[in-house]
Amino acid sequence: MPEENEILDEHLSGEYKYGFVSNIESEKAPIGLSEDTIRFISQKKNEPEWMLEWRLKAFRHWLTMKEPTHWPHLTYPNIDFQQIYYYAAPKQKPQYNSLDEVDPELLRTFEKLGISLDEQKRLSGIAVDAVIDSVSVKTTFREKLSEMGIIFCSFSEAVREYPDLVKQYLGSVVPPADNFYAALNSAVFSDGSFCYIPKGVRCPMELSTYFRINEANTGQFERTLLIADEGAYVSYLEGCTAPMRDENQLHAAVVELVALKDAEIKYSTVQNWYPGNKEGKGGIYNFVTKRGICLGDYSKISWTQVETGSAVTWKYPSCILKGNYSIGEFYSVAVTNNYQQADTGTKMIHIGKNTKSTIVSKGISAGFSNNSYRGLVAIQKGAENARNYTQCDSLLMSDKCGAHTFPYIEVKNKTAKVEHEATTSKIGEDQLFYCNQRGINNEKAIALIVNGYCKEVLNQLPMEFAVEAQKLLEVSLEGSVG
Amino acid sequence: MTTVAATVKDKILTIFKNASAKSNTAYRKEALEYLQNLEVPHSRMENWKYTRPAFLTKNNYELASEIKNIDISPYLLDATYYHLVFINGLYSEKESVLPAVAKDILLVELKNSDNFFNKNFFTTLNAAYFTAGLNIHIPSGIKLDKPLQIIHLSTHNYIANVHHVITVEKNAKAEILITTHSLSENAFLNIFTEIECKENATLTAHLLQLEESESSQYNYINCRQEQNSVFTINTFSLGKSWIRNDLDIVINGSHCEANLYGAYLPQNNQHIDNHTLVKHLKPHSVSNELYKGVLTHRSTGVFNGKVLVEKNAQKTNAYQSNSNILLSNDATVYSKPELEIYADDVKCSHGSTTGQIDEEALFYLQSRGISKDSAMRLLVQAFVADVTKSLSNQTVKTYVEEYVSDRFMNGYAQ
Amino acid sequence: MLEIRNLKASVEEKEILKGINLKINAGEVHAIMGPNGSGKSTLSSVLAGRDGYEVTEGEVDFLQKNLLELSPEDRAREGLFLAFQYPIEIPGVSNINFLKTALNEIRTYKGLEAISAKDFLALVKEKSQLVELDSKLANRSVNEGFSGGEKKRNEIFQLAMLNPKLAILDETDSGLDIDALRIVANGVNKLRSKDRSFIIITHYQRLLDYIVPDFVHVLYNGKIVKSGTKELALELEEKGYDWIKAETV
CB distance from B74 to chain C under 8 Å? Predict the structure, then answer.
């Protein structure tokens, strides 16, 4: 039973298993950030003039902004933005005509991560856009998708081949000046995924992007833009890993989702960036802006995230519910262990009439970590009959960690109904004992209980992801209770 | 500091330029130094996100120089209670009736205090320039036979800074009512109250904010509890004033109980902000918090409650709840119930709901022949009664319930 | 007393009642039976004036007045009482305060003086015995923490207190055990008189063993498809609703 052994091995080692470094030759921009860096990136990507201008404008605005440090419940040393490489790409040309042309080392990297870029080998119908460091290396199943009119490609390609779509929607949900990290991303983003689902099309397979940071001292700044036209449906998955390094690395991504009338977007993330070691050394700074807009009536955007990685997470996947009867959902499990810190949650902005949002957040803190939920529910004046239900629960696994809840509720319409509930508790000793008595050891019992605790969220994930997420939860919490 | 904020600060400080300092203690000097570096609160401060003290720029304030003669009988909640009267920030001995046991009561003349709370611009301004205050000291084992009412009345465009220190010694028990009134739209009352509940002490405080005109009030209460003490504070904002209440409770002992209840019913353009912080430092204590708001017209209600449980405070049981009813489409609610927890063996929960009167309940009442207006009133009363039902003081209970009943007697205001 | 002519009503633009005709004279007890989703509860909601039910056609006369023009409270004041299928809990409003308010508003409407506290309490005592309602329940908040049986008994108690002309019992038997059912039915039987009519909405024949109706109507797919006497109920019990469904196809 090789599979079982694998799980067992993972279970026993209990360490970050994606922490290897691949020996891939890469090409980097000179270290640091200036207008020249941006011109360099833009030129490398053969970008049109308007794209460069857009970047430079964002950069100039970024220079006037300050890092958001006063409100998040996070502490980390100041980041020196001049000590980061803003562009690193595998040296071989970034577009491949067939898999044979791909650097074998790169292929092995993705095989190791459990991501097969070989369409023949893939059992499940998942199309993958693989992004390593700053560049998209391979997008699978493109032809099959294009038959249905679905565009799924790297962002750089989209800029060149679908400039009208990109121009129309880029920055329309997350404007370049939205916040410090979004502005930074807008200036230096190197690649990412672009996806357009045409009117009335139900995307037949899960689309997914796999992010991998490989190079040292490199920041990753990818950008995802996903548009579901009227009546379209798409389920999108996102996964990420990084090597174990002693220094902290910055990941500042932007994700924009646009759902037109009757469209539905389901966006799932399993975030497993390197969290740093047991002493809190190293790990990724994950400062991400994710936002979707339900532009049309009856549209729906659903975020599901399982967050176990990163040293510091600052992330609030949000929904702007502009269309009448539109729906926003946020399902989240965030696990922090050792010295990890997470300040994560969502924003539900109700603008349209009869809009509905649901927030289910499960925070699990262990070790010396701090885990905060921060969420905004805003009912604007015109949002007649808006409904929100929020449930956020925190589970504490040690007496040295912290679990915090910071909801912001703003109501400007009397027909609104907003409910928020939160609880904080420790893992039930009675439950543990019950499991023990039935012959289940603590480690396994915790996994069982935590998985049960998160069920509501895990159930939202597509099948393959759910299994991965469950295993991940188990590994993340190993050794968390003595 | 932004220029606008700096201008406002200058304007306020100018008022005090010629203030004849009552004393020149190190305490005040320290406060004055702090004041130099403090900003007038603005909305970019996380703690003042939803509340702007815009009244500071609107009004021209002065300082009262003499104690006015005023008939205070209309402001007595119960004529048999002890009462202490402050008019425009000055203590009126003539109007006050003191309990015999509290012969220690005197006007505060703070020495170099280690209790200096430089929480913000207002508390520091108060420390530097307060004109009067009480040092209420309930000696060990004494149970005050009657409640004590502290009346604050503003009559004109004065800034009144009042500073009270209330100490309830071991095994002592007291009940204190703090009432605020204003006859002038241009008055600003800034009260700073330090409370200490020693071992096994019981203190019940009622804060009744009953401003007759649209004045402004900043109110800071800090309470420190030692083991086995019970502190209850009921805040009822029923007047017309702009209000910001900051309530900090530090539970520094085991087996303590802290109860925070509140109801706010802002109307017209009124703004009421309740900020509370309950800090659990020691294990085995309990805190309960329930605040309810009913909002009409174009009013705004803010609730920001934080429960903080430190590492040592295992077995803490903390509950926090905030509910609001919006009766008008122009009213706004900001609710921010926060939990910050560093101990694992605790039971902490909070909830917040905002909505309108339950349509099902309304229909049920109407189907029994009750008019819509009466049904609304009944349901609003029931909503607030959730807070008042825990009151043991019948005078306060009746006062609040009648206020709510009268306020919505002729239907409910949009 | 009540005459319904070609009543059609929709909920969220879906037509539920598709032309109801029904005439009820003073003192009569009418049972309306029907399978789930036939429109029984919609009919009671429309008669009581619940929001969200749109009458698209038809008329309802109640004691020579156009019922559909009246607000819910005025319908109650005119003498229409609905015993709810799911009585709502109203925390903080005591049963006593609630009933006193209701009674006095109804009296004011009829040009009567408010009832004195003494008379009111006497009335409460008298009527609560009718349904064996524990007097403690009277002091609690409306329906809060009541068991299913207590809630239904409280509905009949209110019926007795408010003394209506026409009482609609919406699935009053649902969720009741046999003892509670008997108590509720006894209460209702004591309240029967030549001036007061009843509409008893029920899914099962069981309740009609205790409250014997003068007429039985079968509601199916938004229409009354069959009317008869109490024997019809027995026939339904025996043959089930499929028999009716088959007949109407």
Answer: no
Q: How far apart are CA A308 and CA A343, in angstroms?
A: 13
Do B362 and B218 fall into the same domain?
Answer: no
The pLDDT tens digits for A179-219 are 999 999 999 998 888 999 999 999 988 888 877 776 667 78
Output the pLDDT for position A111.
64
Q: Is residue B220, in this structure, part of any structural domain at all?
A: yes
B23 part of a folded domain: yes
Residues in chain C: 249
A12: pLDDT confidence band, cut at 50, 70 and 90?
A: very low
pLDDT (0 to 100) of residue B51: 93
- Average pLDDT in the A71-94 region? 78
Q: Are residues B375 and B240 in the same domain?
A: no
Q: What's the Cα-to-Cα distance from A206 to each of A191, A203, A267, A375, A465, rounded to whole Å?
A: 20, 7, 10, 28, 11
Residue numbers of B between 328 and 347 with CB closer than 8 Å to A = 328-329, 331-347
Choose one of B206, B236, B252: the last residue of a domain.
B252
CA–CA separation, B176 and B233 (whole Å): 9
ipTM beyond cut 0.90: no
Asked whether residue B245 falls in the same domain as residue B374, the answer is no
In a domain, B308, yes or no: no
Domain annotation covers residue B305: no
Range of the domain at B44: 2-252
B113: pLDDT strictly greater than 60: no
| Cα distance between residue A29 and residue A42, in whole Å | 11
Q: Return d(Cα A375, Cα A407) in angstroms, integer.
A: 5
How far is the C-alpha of C202 from the C-alpha of C191, rounded, in Å?
19
Whether residue A5 has pLDDT greater than 50: no
Residue A3 has pLDDT above 50, yes or no: no
Chain C residue whose CA is closest to B389: C92
Average pLDDT over residues C2-13: 92
Q: How many domains does chain B have?
A: 2
Tally Cβ neighbours within 10 Å of residue C151. Answer: 21
Cβ neighbours of residue C90 closer than 8 Å, sequence gap 6 or more: B358, B361, B364, B365, B379, B382, C98, C141, C142, C143, C144
Write the CB contacts of A159 (distance below 8 Å, at least 6 apart in sequence). A45, A47, A48, A51, A166
**pLDDT score for A120:** 46
In B199-253 the beta strands, taken as DSSP E runs, fall at 202-209, 216-225, 230-237, 242-251
Diameter over CA atoms, chain B = 68
Contacts of B371 in chain C (CB under 8 A): 73, 105
Select the residue from A411, A421, A427 to test the B interface by mutation, using most B Cβ atoms within 10 A: A411
- In the complex, which subunits touch C with 3 or more CB pairs below 8 angstroms? B
Q: For residues B40 and B153, state if they share a domain.
A: yes
Which of B229, B252, B275 is the last residue before a domain boundary?
Answer: B252
